[in-house]
Amino acid sequence: MSPAPLAVGLIGCGQFGRFLAQVAIGTGRIRIKAACDQDAQRAATLATELSAVACDDIAAVCARPDVDAVLIATPPALHAEHAITALRAGKQVFLEKPMALSEADCAAINQACAASGRQLMVGHVLRWFEPYRAIAAAYRSGQLGRALHGSFWRLEHDFLRIAPWKGQRAGSGGYLFEVAAHELDWLRSVFGEVQSIATAIDKRLPSAHELEDRVALQLGFADGFGVHYLGGTGFSANSHGFCLRFEHATIESDAAFDPARVRITQHGAHPITLDFSQTNPYRAELDAWLDSLAQQQAMPVTGADAAATVALIASAYRAAGW
Fold first, then answer.
1. Which residue of 53, 76, 158, 307 has the lowest C-beta tally within 10 Å?
2. Do residue 149 and residue 77 come from a single domain?
3. Whole-angstrom distance, CA of residue 84 vs CA of residue 281
4. Total number of domains in the chain
5. What is the reported pTM?
6. How far is CA 102 from the centre of its chain?
7. CA–CA dist 235, 23 (Å, integer)
8. Domain of 38?
9. What is the pLDDT along the chain (322 residues), one digit of tens a residue?
10. Rounded distance, CA 252 to CA 249, Å?
């Protein structure tokens, strides 16, 4: 007999909150019991669609005895407040990335988590996205040999059409928190902590938004591995790709989320293979969270882990004088 679905409250009913709720229900392991949003009508509409109850705020969601866990999909500036409220109410927490917008807020969340006896997972979903997941697995298996150099670019032209609030640094934290956090977290999770960092940021004012036009990072890891990252919202066309050079192969793509566009150039006699999963990465991420809860194991992305990504982003901004 299958266990009963986890009773979950949804905090944030915007575009991504709606998407996350749909994926959660699709696992067959979660039932959305309650939902809230700063826009009461939006919460009411989505709650009706999900056969859930619309609540006035997160306190009302967390006060419900029929809610055991929460999915938090609010703007990053609200993550610390919402995560701490849920943890203090005794709820298990799945918190969207970034964990928070400061190292101090991350520390406060982790303190609340430790005091609550509950578990926190942060949704750094790129770890489950292909081809990134397969590249990480191949590297960890040793078949790629030593990591030599990496280049990543994520150039945005129309990014802010997704959600205008993302263009305000007070809500989103800026480009590094809102966009580059994906690649920066993946790099840390695979290659370890950054040993050195240099940053150049360009922002031409006045403009319709506050996100950086161009961001260039130079990251130094252990054993001489170096990475260059170029991103920003001020480019004339969207472009997203990477080139990773290893001892035994070069792996590159000009369409970062399309495994079919990955090119592998071997530098040795042993064949290099990447085993791509067909599972929806958001589904895989939520299943990993649920599995860890059920088995009472450490989360795949703990608060300490996610806080280190926030610390890296904060260091990058400091290096540029921002």
1. 158
2. no
3. 27
4. 2
5. 0.96
6. 15
7. 32
8. 6-124
9. 678 999 999 999 999 999 999 999 999 999 999 999 999 999 999 999 999 999 999 999 999 999 999 999 999 999 999 999 999 999 999 999 999 999 999 999 999 999 999 999 999 999 999 999 999 999 999 999 999 999 999 999 887 776 778 889 999 999 999 999 999 999 999 999 999 999 999 999 888 889 999 999 999 999 999 999 999 999 999 999 999 999 999 999 999 999 999 999 999 888 899 999 999 999 999 999 999 999 999 999 999 999 999 999 999 999 999 9
10. 10
Alpha-carbon distance 304 to 311, whole Å? 10
Tell whether 115 is covered by a domain.
Answer: yes
Q: Distance between CA 63 and CA 254 in Å, rounded?
A: 48
- For residue 164, the SS3 value is helix
Query: Which residues are 122's β-sheet partners?
Result: 95
Strand order across the 263-266 sheet: 196-202, 214-220, 226-232, 147-155, 239-246, 249-253, 263-266
Residue 314 located in a structural domain? no
Cα separation, 220 vs 199, in Å, equals 12
- Length of the chain in terms of residues written: 322
